[in-house]
Amino acid sequence: METRMDAREEALLTLMDIEKNEKKSHIAIRETLMRFQFAPKQDRAFYSRLCEGVLERKIYLDYILDHFSQKPMASCKPMIRNLLRMGSYQILFMDVRDAAACSEAVKLARKKHFSQLTGFVNGILRTIVRHKDRLPQPDRQENREEYLHVIYSMPKWIVTLLLEAYGPQETEKTLAFFLKPSPLTVRTNLSKISPDQLKEMLAAEGIGSEEGRIFPQALSLKGVNYLQGYQSFQEGYYTVQDESSMLPVMLADIHPGDTILDLCAAPGGKTLHAADRLGGKGLVIARDLSEAKTSYIYDNVERCGFDHVTIEAKDATVYDPAMENRADLVLADLPCSGLGVLGRKSDIRYRQSPDQLKDLVRLQREILAHAWRYLKPGGQLIYSTCTLNPGENEENVRWILDHTPLVPLSLEGRLPKAIAGKEGKERKGSGENYITLLPGSDHCDGFFAACFTRP
User: Fold this and answer.
1) Burial class (CB in 10 A: 0-12, 13-18, 19+), 84
2) Which of 53, 372, 406, 439 would give a disulfide with 177, using CB separation of 3.0 to 4.6 Å?
């Protein structure tokens, strides 16, 4: 493992890898952090923030750069475009000396064999420095959509979707939330340790922790360097999981001895949560499409020490007659557009399109057409996504009721106090048997969950 890290150069290489090879940002960043796991913590933190910041502010950065450059960013060489984004992000959003942001960009341009463009890079960045207290922006009153698109670096079609679904106030709160640092949240494995005991253990390892906003077993961690290096993680006392994604298993009425089928389980957060709630009695069958995906589940199950989990590589779109009428609970946390986790995976906004959303809805319904058949009479199905797209959420609730024998299962008495009854019946994206967690109001990833039962 490498111990010396040029954070700016590594950030540039990562951004190029994401752009040229279409690698997912969280994977590309994680690979670099793994390679430099023994590098100084401040270098790793600088690298992470620079990569993630450029990705989440890319539309805004290009808007500013285009204003000061005679050559549009879209027509610049990719290496130079990313250098300018990195430099302008440091100038506008990081506690970095302006001179250092400019000079380091010039050094990198020269190092990457673009000496002829160092004057171009230096000139634009120094112009931004001179004007950073009076930067241009769209007129909010004349064109709200354009304003939200630029200021919050969100593609227009997503802005339009959110405005239509949740209105201007909730939309802007959500977009603002996506630009805030995402906390590292973990769920305590209660079959091994209590939250209070875990907090003490983490403190002894130099990790700060705060209780979650929604669930008592959730903890938000601070001061973490390399998570896999801590004994508390290695011994499976907790699982990395946002509070929002704890919702499906918390909504389910789970009893020791139940058989639970997790249809699209990787990387295993909900599988582990369900296994934890079974208390060692019962069975969780965790499935995903390929051996590559199920390998993540194996790693997490082994670390946490659960021996009542069966892991299988199976395609959820293909009906499995062997599972007919076997499950007390089916967890259908299905592939989705991910529009609720844009604060953690910024590049999703650039990868998705309206046509892809339609394809995802078809995939979800193909899986749901089989999923209900695995339930015993009286069994529960929890359908969930990490998106804010009503087409994948509320419209699929209606589809389930129209195309399967499942009936709604009321959320009354199932929701945690932190969100139960919040905004009453006016809560957008929620109904009798389903709820949407909204990032701006609920202070977590955007998430949707709906409950059904088989008569």
Assistant:
1) buried
2) 439
pLDDT tens digits, 148-178? 999 999 999 999 999 999 999 999 999 999 9
Q: Categorize the per-residue pLDDT at 424 as very low, low, confident or very high, splitting at 50, 70 and 90.
A: very low
Distances from the Cα of 35 to the Cα of 39, 215, 226, 288, 401, angstroms: 9, 34, 11, 28, 49
What local confidence, expressed as pLDDT, does residue 1 receive? Answer: 63
Helix intervals (H) in 152-261: 156-178, 195-204, 231-234, 247-251
Active site positions, annotated = 386
* Domains along the chain with CATH numbers: 7-131 (1.10.940.10), 144-178 (no CATH), 184-240 (3.30.70.1170), 247-453 (3.40.50.150)
Whole-number Å distance between alpha carbons of 163 and 187: 32
Q: Phi, psi at residue 391, to the nearest 5°? A: -65, -30
* Nearest-angstrom CA–CA distance, 52 and 182: 11
> How distant is the alpha carbon of residue 347 from its chain centre?
10
Q: What is the pLDDT of residues 366-408, one digit of tens each?
A: 999 999 999 999 999 999 999 999 999 999 999 999 999 999 9
Q: How many CB atoms lie within 10 A of CB 177?
A: 21
- Residue with structure tokens 């990790």? 207
Adjacent-strand bridge partners of 211: 219
Q: Are 62 and 85 in contact (CB under 8 A)?
A: yes
Q: Is 343:178 a contact under the CB 8 Å cutoff? A: yes
Q: For residue 452, give the amino acid letter.
A: F
C-beta separation of 429 from 166 below 8 A: yes
